[in-house]
Amino acid sequence: MKIKVIGDEFTCLGFNLAGVDTVVTMDRETVDVEFEKSLQDEEIGLIFITEKEADLIRDKVDKQKTEGKMPLVVEIPSKVGWRERGRTLQLIKRVLSIEV
Amino acid sequence: MNVNPTRMELLRLKKRTTLAVRGHKLLKQKQDELLRIIQEIISKLSNLRKEIEEELLKALKKFFLARAYQDKKSFEASFLLLDTDIELSMGWKKVMNVPLPEYKKSLQGELISYGFANTSPTLDEALKNLMVVFDRLIELAEMEKRIALLAEEMKKTRRRVNALEYILIPELKAAVRYINMKLSEREREVNSRLMRIKDVIRG
Predict the structure, then answer these.
(1) pLDDT for B34-89, tens place per residue?
(2) Of B42, B141, B154, which is closest to A100 when you measure between CB atoms?
(3) Is A77–B53 a contact, with Cβ atoms under 8 angstroms apart?
(4) Total count of domains within chain B
(5) Given this model, what pLDDT does residue A100 score?
(6) Which domain holds residue B118?
(7) How far is B107 from chain A, CA to nearest CA, in Å?
(8) What is the ipTM of this complex?
(9) Is A91 in CB contact (< 8 Å) with chain B?
(10) Do B102 and B93 meet the contact criterion of CB atoms below 8 Å apart?
């Protein structure tokens, strides 16, 4: 299985050198198209998407995270770091209604 | 619950009650265990996220620096002949009957696949850092998915526990009580009827 990185030019550069397929995205539309394409591709087992890009298609990312089986989607911090910590934790909190 | 007040039915209901109680106990234990696992993962997760953030930033900064050290053309040229390929293999591990994904990363080819002559050592370092973060990122992916799956299972289990505890078991118990009362009522009826008949016969 392959890994795919969707993100800004800077993040992609690094991962590209490490031998990962990357897509540099500029605006909402390209992110959307690339994300959908990656979801359809059965070869891809893991998608890393930078947080900023994930925010553009927040609903789709969240849906894939909670409901979709494959591939896994993980948000990674872009060069400014994580802006919002533990969104997954909030998700869990909402589902479980437990203190974490 | 609508039941026939017969002895057969009573026996059947009693059996069902014990089964329901046993099931409830088991499910409750499952729920506790799930919660424990989830909390374990959560505590690991928050640490992991912090570490990843730090390390990824470090790696990216080094890339930035490396790019600054040399002109754009030769920098991009060093990416042209890539030999590295990351392959991901996936397995499933079952915890509490929930299949959880497990990833393994394997690196093919040389990590550093460019010439040393016209690239800065910072690039090598950045690449090495990135590889370290990469393992962590895969771990993070695994954990986030696991926790989502476990939470889903937890939700289901809790619904079952509640259904058993607050609906099925009380209903069954009420039905058992109802049948018991009906049966003893009938017994008293028969008794008094016999007494009456005895009187008539004697009289």
Answers:
(1) 888 888 888 888 788 888 888 888 887 887 787 777 777 766 666 666 666 677 77
(2) B42
(3) yes
(4) 1
(5) 44
(6) 7-194
(7) 9
(8) 0.74
(9) yes
(10) yes
pLDDT in tens, B16-45: 999 999 999 999 999 999 888 888 888 888
A2-96, what's its fold?
Rossmann fold (3.40.50)
**CATH number of the CATH domain containing B108:** 1.10.287.3240
Going from N- to C-terminal start, the domains of chain A cover: 2-96
Residues B126, A14: C-beta atoms closer than 8 Å? yes
CA A66 to chain centre: 13
The answer to the question of residue B175 being in a domain is: yes
Q: Give B103's contacts (C-beta < 8 A, 6+ positions apart).
A: A45, A46, B88, B89, B90, B138, B141, B142
Look up residue B50 and give its amino acid. K
Beta strand A72-76 with B85-95 is unpaired
Chain A residues in contact with B42 (beta carbon < 8 A): 89, 92, 100
Instruction: Give the per-residue pLDDT at B179.
Output: 94
